[in-house]
Amino acid sequence: xxxxxxxxxxxxxxxxxxxxxxxxxxxxxxxxxxxxxxxxxxxxxxxxxxxxxxxxxxxxxxxxxxxxxxxxxxxxxxxxxxxxxxxxxxxxxxxxxxxxxxxxxxxxxxxxxxxxxxxxxxxxxxxxxxxxxxxxxxxxxxxxxxxxxxxxxxxxxxxxxxxxxxxxxxxxxxxxxxxxxxxxxxxxxxxxxxxxxxxxxxxxxxxxxxxxxxxxxxxxxxxxxxxxxxxxxxxxxxxxxxxxxxxxxxxxxxxxxxxxxxxxxx
Length: 266
Ligand SMILES: Nc1nc2c(ncn2[C@@H]2O[C@H](COP(=O)(O)OP(=O)(O)OP(=O)(O)O)[C@@H](O)[C@H]2O)c(=O)[nH]1
Ligand SMILES: [Mg+2]
Prior knowledge:
Elements: E1 6-12, H1 19-30, E2 37-43, H2 50-54, E3 60-64, H3 71-83, E4 89-92, H4 103-113, E5 118-124, H5 130-147, E6 159-161, H6 163-172, H7 180-191, E7 195-201, H8 226-244, E8 254-255, E9 264-265
Parallel strand pairs: 1-2, 1-4, 2-3, 5-7
Antiparallel strand pairs: 4-6, 5-6, 8-9
Helix pairs in contact: 3-6, 5-7
């Protein structure tokens, strides 16, 4: 197996400490499987020199966002910039490096060998606080009820795609979406795409700084931070409006796997 051009896209906010090492690790692991790899980092107005930490790496392209928009819109910007490079395979991962490089070839092999449209890295070994586990469980239940199928890690940020599939998904989701990967997971099921799941290891974020986490830190926090409560309410409303309600735009969408990039019919 040799992929002519692999593009790995990642959103990043204040990841200067760990992101270059993470990229080095991914590159080392995927090099035997690719002819070329390009990394696209959507920098969400970091204030810690994230872009400077990547400036001299030739296979890294940094896309500085005009304003700080949070994870979802930044992830979508990273997808769009990566797709513009016409990759043969596209991988998305968060810039905080919570995965091992050795799991990337596992995803790529699963995508190639099973003829899948998309492969999800299903995270094991997470140490989330209780309120995140509750939220994750609720979203998982909602998706199972809505789609009639269990999706083991609905919001995983580690995914490998055939590019036309990623293009169709990105085109179908609003640019400002808070939780694009939840919408993707639902649309993949609704559209009948072939989705494969591989177990991957989840590790602590690589930078020592706490500024990157949206959720507060560690299982010792007794109550969900107010920011998370607000985010959860907004995100659940968005999932209802965009993907689940009877009039939701993504509900009736049928993505066409073999159509040209971007094709999606209402
Ligand atoms: N916190 C935060 N992260 C952002 C923002 N924009 C992009 N990101 C990136 O989004 C990714 C996910 O953010 P995290 O805060 O790690 O969210 P998470 O992985 O769900 O939470 P943890 O399990 O605590 O790591 C990271 O790669 C960030 O660099 C932003 O405005 N705030
Ligand atoms: Mg994270």
